[in-house]
Design brief:
182 residues, Nuclear Transport Factor 2, Chain: A, alpha+beta
């Protein structure tokens, strides 16, 4: 077998291992299993959440998860990854380092009862240690110009404007009637 074939076979094996790691993470996420999620992360993982918070290490990610999803008044009651896709194969670098980007369709039920779905962009950096891939960095974000929270806010602003206009017309009409009668 030539060096090129050996390299290609090794890269294919790496991509298969990375897909399995992704699938394990998604399954653990959908179960709400923080231990399962952290099992595929390096102990020094850096995680940037959609709310802009940055967590470092397993303890930081675990603490964030507990703050958002645990306790008597969780901010997020439930969340799931409904679909996930990479933009392209992970870019692999010498020395066992890889970078991947993609999107995920996610669902959320917040503590206040609000539910919505959202397309999330993500990027991951992974390292291969002791022949096993681990996530060392995760960054998630959403489009600030087109997202479900913004759409709900615009709709609420429209309803508020319409209600305010209706009340203004009613009060103006009543005052006009009152002053005309004087």
């Amino acid at each position: 077998m030539s060096d090129a074939n050996t390299t290609q076979t090794a890269q294919e094996a790496d991509h298969q291992a990375l897909r399995a790691m992704r699938d394990a993470f998604v399954a653990a996420y959908n179960r709400g299993d923080i231990h399962g999620m952290l099992a595929v992360c390096d102990e020094n993982v850096a995680f940037t959440a959609m709310d802009g918070r940055v967590c470092h290490g397993h303890a930081g990610v675990r603490n964030y998860h507990e703050q958002m999803l645990a306790g008597s008044r969780p901010r997020v009651k439930s969340t799931s990854i409904d679909a996930v896709e990479a933009d392209q194969l992970t870019t692999l670098y010498d020395g066992g380092f890889g970078v991947a980007t993609g999107w995920a369709d996610t669902s959320y039920k917040l503590g206040d009862g609000l539910t919505f779905t959202c397309r999330v962009r993500w990027s991951n950096s992974m390292v291969k240690k002791d022949d096993q891939w681990k996530i060392v960095s995760v960054h998630t974000s959403t489009n600030i110009f087109d997202n479900p929270i913004l759409s709900m806010s615009k709709k609420a602003a429209g309803y508020t404007a319409a209600a305010t206009a209706a009340v203004g017309l009613a009060v103006g009409g009543a005052l006009g009637w009152f002053f005309r009668r004087r």
